[in-house]
């Protein structure tokens, strides 16, 4: 896919809307083509998005988003640079997408709480609530025309953030720092399964699991948002949602370390997987990312160009 086609998809689809609207700013996104990771590092330096700033306690993150993972990351640059630099690039490139995904969830959560607090709701309010309930799999039938108290309570439990430290550690683990075949072919950072023949076929399929593939995505942020929706809806992760709700009720922000123990069933490796994710959070000092926030400024969309851009 050429860069012109990538940009056309970016500006003509829902992705641009996902990226450019902040809580207080409606901004025009700036698109920047790049051919080397060094250009990205220069941009980070210009934006003050540096290791030095982070170590000084600055948690403001620029709205810099990657349109797609270029194949040259897997095939060339990840092999040439140091492990430390590879990790820094991965976390700093994915971090804004994680924060933006949570920002969108919190916007829905805030609106949901305002709706629940109302004495009465108009038809537009009810329609929005039903749409959110369907998205979060509280209801699935078109015949439902209102939500009960228990359904609204469960919806509030589901519409909430996934701590950035947990997202970043899992993405790094699942995708091999963005170098996996699935990340390369489909911006897939979490190995989510899909059925029906439209996914990326694994080289070795597990017997008895049906006609599954790995879901592909238009962009890394789409992969992040799908992963978050999975944790927020699938029955397997009910414990995560319940623990997060308890933390909220206690007046505490959910953190990756507080929730990681609930992911025993995320992987067939069970507790060993949980221990590994916890260690990745500790070793890479990701705890501080749970206090990060996006700058209130126009976004920059990085579009790979040149050889290996696809």
UniProtKB/TrEMBL annotation:
It comes from the Bacteria. Signal peptide: none annotated. It holds the Pfam family Glucosaminidase. GO terms for molecular function: amidase activity. Residues 154-284 form the Mannosyl-glycoprotein endo-beta-N-acetylglucosamidase-like domain. Transmembrane segments: none annotated. InterPro entries: Bax-like, MGlyc_endo_b_GlcNAc-like_dom. This is Bax domain protein. It comes from Nitrosococcus watsoni (strain C-113). The lineage of its organism: Bacteria, Pseudomonadati, Pseudomonadota, Gammaproteobacteria, Chromatiales.
